């Protein structure tokens, strides 16, 4: 998150003043004497330092002519102070004037959004500040960089306006090599805040020659913790710009190693910034497994992150938990996995009882990481109260990020097999809490809840009935089939598919919900492979279990299934897709044999047509010879393929387990930029 610098203290100390003094000083700025101008500028700067209640600052901000005059003097002093024809006394006055006007702007830039916008809109102000960055006066450079740093905290419009100023970004990058640590810190802070403005600005900064290299150098070469802090935050923000930028930052020699070293800093700000940077460099997604492996390979990284879970700073705890969650189990050696699980588990479970919702979310996210391994999942499930606390946070937290991460942790546990499913479902309020989250306004929360219900429903008929018995459970899942998010549609279809595996009564309950069959049919044409396959499988279950379903849908089949070559071929294809009414066995697989077998009573036309619905989902051409078993086999292949591609979908990523076809694992990758707290993760304190 952008940081607002404190400002440079002008020489001479603070001077108490009133509105009339400000008016007099502003008048003196119009003097023709450079000495008087410089003196007036310093007086103004000192008055702003002493302005504890902000009244004088607001007076200056509210006078556009005054701001314009300060900007004019700053620009003129910058353009003429380097002139060789000027006398030494004249250059001295202009140098003092340049420094004083830059410091004046630095204090004004702290007065809120209105002040930032007024400064940026003052003609010549930004150009003058960029000119001062090239000054030989390091105090003036520091004040100008500080002002730009604060202005860049004013939102995307101001960030873009600064970055569009010729040479602004380039000169800030140059100042990263200054001999003054104060200048380095302010320049790094300005770069960091600009890099918080999105991918275009991140790319613009990274494209400046030596920008990344200089930031990495500051991580290890500077003795100033403030410089290290701002450099780490700048690299963190750059790493949020996408896979290419993450690789570019990580490829700079020493980046990962120096960030890991900073985890042991005595400054909590530095520790937090380094941990968040490591998290974003890894990215938590499969695309970046090589980067995550690079981070995990640094000696001591897991141990140091685990130690930070005991920090007295909630921000450090959250950042460390997030960094651990970003390292998927496949990125760590077996020894590291055991170390991480053993050392982190107790600490993470304690963090679930923190007073901070952000820490709750990060701890739950870390549990998602730990549950990626069966051994760690067993340890978590065996801890008294662990699952209960996750259910409590999921159900009672007012923070959507906590809801999402807690539900996702439960999803991963429930994806570990029947014992885990039963343990999660047995917690009072677990199923009801998940159903409640289906009504969330947050798509990611809905995805996590629906997939968790899907995993629970795969535990057998008793659990399916338990879920379906919760008021509104089936109805809400059906409503989500029409969500604007394909990820939500896929998760809801998966849950309905798992429920539809139950008995005829449950299948009938689903089919009777208004819009259920129509919603599933609509998803057969979805470009989201997970939604497409889950809907087809759900319809297959419903069609086999409910006679009223095909009867209701008979009139709609013609719109979905292209007309076959002949009536005989259609009857043969239908016969091969529908089990016989008497024994439930598959019909003959040969079209000719099916047509020539008078002993077998043909299925009801409506039932045959409805059973052909799954075949319309790209599983088999209309009229082709395919059995229910064949369709199921192809569906299985589609589901397995869907698990590999689902991580590229908008919300959540599902990774299946070979031993459990319908189980879903949610990974915690975050490529998409979302509102962030100071640690760079989603903040529960922000709207």
UniProtKB/TrEMBL annotation:
GO BP annotation list: nucleus-vacuole junction assembly
Protein location: Vacuole membrane
Chaperone in keyword set: no
Record field: transmembrane: none
Iron keyword on record: no
Biased composition (Low complexity): 75-93
Molecular function, one GO term: protein-membrane adaptor activity
Region (Disordered) location: 73-95, 645-687
Keywords: Lipoprotein, Membrane, Repeat, Vacuole
Cellular component GO terms, alphabetical: vacuolar membrane
Pfam families: Arm (PF00514), HEAT_EZ (PF13513)
Protein family (similarity comment): Belongs to the beta-catenin family.
This protein's name: Vacuolar protein 8
Species the sequence originates in: Tetradesmus obliquus (Green alga)
